[in-house]
Specification:
The chain has helices at about 20-25, 30-35, 110-130, 135-140, 140-145, 155-165, and strands at about 5-10, 30, 45-55, 60-65, 75-80, 95-105. The chain has about 170 residues and is of the alpha+beta class.
Amino acid sequence: MKSLPYFCRGEVIRGFGRGSKELGIPTANFPDSVVDNLPADINTGIYYGWACVGNGDVYKMVMSIGWNPYYKNTKKSMETHVIHTFKEDFYGEILSVVMVGYIRPERSYDSLEALIAAINNDIEEAKLKLELPEHLKLREDNFFTTFSSALPATTASTSQTIMNGH
C-alpha cells in the first residue's frame, strides 16, 4: 500500500456504540468526511499506528477500516482503538492518527467471543510491530506536534493535502 504511512485527523464522533459496551474495547470513530477521503489503495482491514487526542500524548493504536462483517454494517467506518486507558470519553476532540502498517483483512466471526479474541490478537501484534525502529520514529513526527486545539478542525481532504505522503 503505497499510501502508508497515512496521516489523517478529524473530530471524534459517536459510532455504533458497540466498542466499549459489547466488546470491552473502546473505539474512537471518524466522521464520513475522513472515511470518504481515504486513498483508493487503503483497503478495508485492520491497521496499526500511532494516535493522539487533541494535544495529548501519542499512543499506539489499532484501526478497523470497513464494514465490520460480524455486524453486517452498511456504512464504511474507521474505528480507532487507542492502546491507552482514558479517564473519560473524548467525543468532539480532534483525533490525529498515522497508520503505519496493515495487519489483516476484515472478516466475519462465528461468535462475539471469537471477534474479541481476534481484536485482542490485533492489539498484541500492533504493540510488537510498533516497537520496530522504522515505526517508532513516526511517533515523534511533526504531524503530532503541529496541531493546536485553537485551530479549526481540519477535514481529511485538508489533512491529506498537507500531511499525507511526507
